[in-house]
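ARCHIVE CARD
Drawer: 12
Card no.: 0347
Subject: one protein chain, sequence and derived structure
Cross-reference: see card 0346
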Amino acid sequence: MRTLCSSTLIGEVFIIGFAALVAMKDPDLSTSTVWLVSGIAMVLCVLLCGMVTRPGGVALGWALQIALIASGVFVPTMYFLGAIFGALWWASVHFGRKVDEAKARFAAQAENSSSTPDAA
């Protein structure tokens, strides 16, 4: 799960950076505010890569997805991109857990087969 979720989060770092460049063109938003908020969001994405498997990590990821969609208020394209990355986040969590379960099952099978004595 960690690999899939981290890949999604790193992709979001780039999307947030590009959205900040677009938001800078809005005369109602100050450049420093845009980069402060975007910078915090990008750092949170990177930090969350290491926290995905810890308790609450996935929930923080969902909060980040909601914030990404909500940023569409300032950059309307982010409604669409936020929804895309929300779907990617869901797929990363859902299929990542299935992969982790399969790995654990195969490891248990390998351990059981190696611990049974050979009939010679």
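Annotation on reverse: The chain has a mean pLDDT of 91. Residues 106 and 112 are 10 Å apart (CA to CA).
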